[in-house]
Amino acid sequence: EVVSVEQTVVCTPFVGAPEIVVSGTTLQSESGVPPDGAVSSGETITLAVTLRNQGGVPVTALTAAVLPSTGVVPLGGAVAYGLINAGGDEVTRNQTFRVTAAPGATA
User: Fold this and answer.
1) What is the DSSP secondary structure assignment for residue 66, as one 8-state letter?
2) pTM of the model
3) Which of 29, 31, 34, 82 has the fewest CB atoms within 10 Å distance of its CB?
4) How many CA atoms lie within 13 A of 3 on its CB side?
């Protein structure tokens, strides 16, 4: 009953701009009992999402949110990542959502 979660970051880089990418995710918690370390349909999930600035200038006051889509229901608004310096600096914040996708689906 495992569901995979795709990561999408939309960013239009140009010379001298920040370039924000998802550099990693880690499952922090799941509502399934007993926890099995996998994202499953019907669970509330908290992921630690790490964003990296690969661009040439820092980004300040960055916020990011899980967007509603087929199989994913966000359970919070945008999360403040704040300052991410240029040149590969990373910041990690938790994002919480409910998985509604069918088992084996990609959300």
Assistant:
1) P
2) 0.80
3) 34
4) 23
Report the 10 Å Cβ neighbour count for 10: 6
- What values do phi and psi take at 23, rounded to 5? -105, -5
Q: Which residue has the tokens 């960055």?
A: 62
Contacts of 1 (CB under 8 A, 6+ apart): 38, 40, 41, 103, 104
The answer to whether the CB of 57 falls within 8 A of the CB of 18 is yes
- Residue 101 and residue 69 in contact, taking contact as beta carbons nearer than 8 Å: no
* The two three-digit tokens of residue 72, written as one number: 């994913």
